[in-house]
Amino acid sequence: MSEINSIFLEQLIGMGFDPQLAQNALEISGNSDLESALSMIEILQESFVAQEQNTFETQKPTSPTKQPSKVESDEQTDTETSNESITEDSISENELEITKRSKIQKDSDDEKDTEDEKDTEDESNSNFEDNPNENFGEIGFDLEMSQDSKAPVKSLDKKTIMKQQARKIDNIAELFQINRNVAGVLLRHFRWNEQKLQEQMVTDKNKVYKEAKVNPSDVITQKYTPLSNVCEICYDEFDLKDAFALKCRHSFCPSCWKEHLSTKIKDGDVSKIKCPGFKCNEIVDEQAMKRFLDKKQFQKYLWFVAKSFVEDNPDVKWCPAPGCEKAVDESMITRGTNVQCSCGHRFCFKCGQEAHSPATCEQLVSWKKKCKDDSETYNWLLTNTKPCPKCGSVIEKNGGCNHMTCRKCRHEFCWVCLGDWNLHGTNYYSCTRYDPKKADPSVDNSKKALERYLHYFHRFQNHQKSLQFEQELRKKVKAKSDQMLKSSTVSYIDVEFMREATNVVCECRATLMFSYVFAYYLQDNSKGKALFEFVQEDLEKTTEDLSELLERPIEKIDKAQVVNMTRIANKKINGLYDRVDSGMI
Amino acid sequence: MSLREKRLMSELKSLTQKTPDLIKIVKTENLMTWLIEITGAEKTLYEDETYTLQFRFDTEYPLKPPEVVFLQESPVHPHIYSNGHICLDILDESWTPALTVESVLLSLISMMSSCKKKERPPDDSSYVRAWKKNKFSPKKTKWFFHDNKV
């Protein structure tokens, strides 16, 4: 033990911490300073509480309703508990409906089994906008959201986008007593940043008008008549009585106006539709559009304008999933930069790529490039098989957790590190850690770098593979839940925890997958890395535990245990993100 | 009668009645394809040189610009490619239905008149090579208008 270490240790013991705990924390955090040791203690304590609770739950598996408040003490649990109770209230309202539904479902089961199965699947995948009493998906969604500490949020659909946009325009128009068109141009110029626009308008109105190239006196209530009664497009004469012109008073007959505007709409060129006069910069306003376009075209126009609201606005992004016309806003970010559209697609709010937090966008780009360059050469690593560490039989992993049992020799091992599983059970899960000491000291640097990369790549890919089995897992879990529904008197809500647990397992895997990318770019032997690896390892262990619980045969599935483990896992993901976000790592 | 026909008829009528100098209408039997000759203005690099232009009007004319190319030999000019394609903003994004065949012709003559040195665009060879492969219309080209002086 070094000198610094003992000083810190004494200090920590002086603060009232358990000596063993203090020493562990100091070792893991790298003996470097008190602060990281303290945060380590915090993590250790958290996971200790979690483990404790887990054993508690395991011992009393038959009391699912009494679970949380007894053991847990911190704030988060409190909110979660209250959330749960809220959910339960809302459930009871719907329960009647649900039991009715499941009864109907059971009745029809005998007759057309396959079709029914398809139906329920459709229901759970269906859009959440439908009447909540009409589908189970909605209820599942609510449950899922209430477990998360954030308020339920929905992607913005066409209607909401248009509404939001109109509200912003109305606000500005009312506040500064200007025409809605002018307000629209100003907002577009300020990329829909209402606050910034307001500030600048207060400081210097005229400058703002000049910059956005609008004239506040552009009031459409004023009617302009064309300069001549000969149309500049078709050269026909027209009746000046109900003719239309913009402020520039260029002369076009109504039919040519209509043609011009609908051609522009057809082309999707709506950012700034101008007067057809040569070199005329007069912008055609919404009223004129309404006047000359038919209803369908006008709707299209409004939608184009609304689209620019999303495209120009840095706080709103389109969901990149093919065919999805919804947008998400910043408030929907769940963890790191990850967002989930209500269509189910998860992506990064910043770069639009797959959700990759805790790794950053830059890390993802560089990682992808690296994988592309390096994995070509090391294709053999991509194979789906590994030999059993004991008997050497070739084993293919096609789903499930990392606890493997060789069919041939019954050897139990960890798929990730190929070590004995027994060692994982008692000690902390340690196969996440890359130990440079373990590597052969004689190998040169380039090989070391490659080994280092492969270490992370291997683990990254392992979770990626597991995630690819996500659909399969969901199907399996669904089959199990259905079986539960059939075999006993439980209602749909009583098996919902299975779906929730599956979601969390998948989220854990996605987080872990990219946590290896993040770790790859952390400097070796830094104190941040030690901390991160610890948290990662902890999450990994919980994920495996939860995954294993789900893999169990149906009669051995214990709701209390699963629910509890799900919550722990959720908490641990949050913990990991908190630490990354706070810059501690 | 469609807008295109109506408009082309009246354009043709006024252009034949009062044809500006340097412009000669060659062939308009087919209303949708016109051949017109232009001659370089006096005291310019193109003085007394005559070139043939082909105008093609698709169904969206005059809401969309006509397709205008030089036939046979094209004038050597920094905005005119050796395959006859012309890089001119009013034939693309700056087109408005208020423009006419006559205004296009006058723009072209003025563009040639202000030229100081007879040379091809810098990317002439690569552009023409690409064009020879599938003979695309100049309206399909994404033009960049960087020079308004010539």
UniProtKB/TrEMBL annotation, chain A:
PANTHER family: RBR FAMILY RING FINGER AND IBR DOMAIN-CONTAINING (PTHR11685). This is RBR-type E3 ubiquitin transferase. It comes from Anaeramoeba ignava. Pfam families: Ariadne (PF19422), IBR (PF01485), IBR_1 (PF22191), UBA (PF00627), UBA_ARI1 (PF21235), zf-C3HC4 (PF00097). Residues 52-139 are annotated as: Disordered. It comes from the Eukaryota. GO terms for molecular function: ubiquitin protein ligase activity; zinc ion binding. Residues 3-41 form the UBA domain. Residues 227-435, 231-276 form the RING-type domain. Residues 52-70, 125-134 have a biased composition (Polar residues). Its EC number is 2.3.2.31. It catalyses: [E2 ubiquitin-conjugating enzyme]-S-ubiquitinyl-L-cysteine + [acceptor protein]-L-lysine = [E2 ubiquitin-conjugating enzyme]-L-cysteine + [acceptor protein]-N(6)-ubiquitinyl-L-lysine. CDD domains: BRcat_RBR_HHARI-like (cd20343), Rcat_RBR_TRIAD1 (cd20360), RING-HC_RBR_TRIAD1 (cd16773). Residues 97-109 have a biased composition (Basic and acidic residues). Keywords: Metal-binding, Repeat, Transferase, Ubl conjugation pathway, Zinc, Zinc-finger. InterPro entries: Ariadne, ARIH1-like_UBL, E3_UB_ligase_RBR, IBR_dom, Rcat_RBR_TRIAD1, TRIAD_supradom, UBA, UBA-like_sf.
UniProtKB/TrEMBL annotation, chain B:
InterPro entries: Ub_conjugating_enzyme (IPR050113), UBC (IPR000608), UBQ-conjugating_enzyme/RWD (IPR016135). Residues 3-150 form the UBC core domain. SMART domains: UBCc. This is Ubiquitin-conjugating enzyme e2 w. It comes from Anaeramoeba ignava (Anaerobic marine amoeba).
